[in-house]
Amino acid sequence: MKNITSYQGKNILVLGLGKSGYETAKLLHVLGANVTVNDGKDVSLTNEAKELEALEIKVVSGHHPIELLGDIDLIVKNPGIPYHIPFIQEAIARNIQIITEVELAYEINEGKIIGITGTNGKTTVTSLIGDMFKHSNQTGLLCGNIGFVASLVAQNAKSEDTLITELSSFQLMGIRHFKPHIALITNIYSAHLDYHGTQDEYVSAKLNIVKNQTAEDYLIFNYKQKELLNNFEIESQIIYFSTEEKVNGSYIVDGKIYFQNEFIIDVDEVVLPGKHNLENILSSIAAAKLSDIPNESIIATLKSFEGIKHRLQFVMTHENVKYFNDSKATNTLATTFALDAFHSPIHWLCGGLDRGNGFEDLDEHVSNVKHMYIFGQTTEKLKAFAESHHIPYSICDDVKDAVLQTKGNTVAGDTVLLSPACASWDQYPTYEVRGEDFIQHVKLLQ
Questions:
Q1: Are 364 and 414 in contact (CB under 8 A)?
Q2: Can you tell me the distance from the alpha carbon of 47 to that of 44, in angstroms, rounded to the nearest whole number?
Q3: Residue 243, annotated as binding a ligand
Q4: 120 annotated ligand binder
Q5: pLDDT band at 343, cuts 50/70/90?
Q6: Residue 132: which H helix or E strand, with range?
Q7: Is 284 left (phi over 0), alpha (psi -120 to 50) or beta?
Q8: What confidence tier does 191 reach under pLDDT thresholds 50, 70, 90?
């Protein structure tokens, strides 16, 4: 990693002792900072807190005392902590700069960065690009929102390596110098309004990914949403992807995929299912080609990559009923893709955290839904949705209860689909835990 000195002797507060907070505190300690860690939950007895205290890093937990801000030069904030909490508002009032951990990853990284963001598809795209690198002679290291702490990965990366970094809007709000050589935005739809407040703020957070790019860098963008770029100054070279027309970038003509007039592969040879995944594939191809990944490596991925866990993941067939785990569908757009993927009668498991949005986006996508199994904070909204569409429904305690209730309702040829259209945090710590709960109880049906 780069030997940077800008943090030596600085008083830095790491806010949130999750995986990224833990690694951030250790990194800043190595870089010579005076580090304090603060978490609103009581983490005093955790192994992480004890290990940090052994390094003489102060850990304050259980609340956010304002006096911690007294001599702080910088806050490195967990992305999930909203800016509207009083502690952060007081820090802003005191003009204390707030960044997220991906900024540190950029500052110490020796090689190039591909940054991937978007409302839907970013984990699939990050994984696709990583697989294309894996089939080549280049090293691509997955990190960021995909589950590997970016600053930890960057510490071990070499100058010839590429960080393939999945980025959330929450992370991108906390950057100052962060600059990916290739920025990729899969799409931007309505999401996270409970955090950002307005759609304009959400779009601005996503477009932060390009704010430091120069003419030597690239932005890969969805052509059907190009108007979103009109309000932003883009210095980088824009490469589009489109499933509908020929563009400067990746596109499909007569069932064949091209990148800038170069034939890559027939659509029929691609393994990854779903029409929505064609956009993910096209954007991934663009990133790979701009990174000088050879065609044979790209093709090898597209002929073998079947998808990621919790995204339209086939679980099993029981009594001729197929079960699919789409727990990663944390918004309505992702669920439309899932509902449209099946022609069989669907038993739809849905619900979760209420972020204030409605479900009218799903109106045109429920013709195959035979029964709804509703759980979580959005129960009343989804109950009203079911009634307005004359869909039978069951009110369930949680995913486990929903799975159990499907057993008496399904017949051979049906599909059981967990695609919640909501975040998991009202009942589960992550969508992965929610998906594993589904998988576990589906397998118990045998």
A1: no
A2: 9
A3: no
A4: yes
A5: confident
A6: helix 122-134
A7: alpha
A8: low
Is 222 one of the annotated binding-site residues?
no
Residue 96 near residue 75 (C-beta atoms within 8 A): yes
Angle at 444 between CA 440 and CA 446, to 5 degrees: 135
Q: Is the pLDDT of residue 219 over 90?
A: yes
Kindly state the tokens that stand for 6.
């800008």
Which residues is 358 bridged to in the sheet? Answer: none
What is the per-residue pLDDT across 233-276, written as a single tens digit (0 to 9) for each? 999 999 999 999 999 999 999 999 999 999 999 999 998 877 78
**CB–CB of 293/134 below 8 Å?**
no
Query: In the chain, what are the domains?
Result: 11-99 (3.40.50.720), 102-302 (3.40.1190.10), 313-443 (3.90.190.20)
Do the annotations mark residue 174 as ligand-binding?
no
Look up residue 29 and give its DSSP letter: H
Determine the Cα angle at 216 with ends 211 and 222, to 5°: 60
Examine the pLDDT at 37 and tell me if it is beyond 90: yes
* 121 carries a ligand binding annotation: yes
pLDDT category at 4 given cuts 50, 70, 90 is: very high
| Burial class of residue 71 in the structure, from the number of CB atoms within 10 Å of its CB (0-12 exposed, 13-18 middle, 19+ buried) | exposed
118 is in an annotated binding site: yes
List the beta strands (DSSP E) in 118-175: 140-144, 162-166
* CB atoms inside a 10 Å sphere around CB 110: 13
Beta carbons within 8 Å of 118's beta carbon, 6+ residues apart: 125, 184, 185, 186, 187, 188, 206
At 97, list the tokens. 């700069």
99-158 confidence digits (pLDDT tens): 999 999 999 999 999 999 999 899 999 999 999 999 999 999 999 988 899 999 999 999
Tell whether residue 122 is among the known ligand binding residues: yes
The C-alpha atoms of residue 139 and residue 122 are separated, in whole angstroms, by 20
Residue carrying structure tokens 């995929």: 257
pTM, 2 dp: 0.79
User: CB of 106 within 8 A of CB of 151?
Assistant: no
Residue with tokens 């993941």: 313
Residue 47: both structure tokens together: 């192994």
Beta-carbon count within 10 A of 242 CB: 19
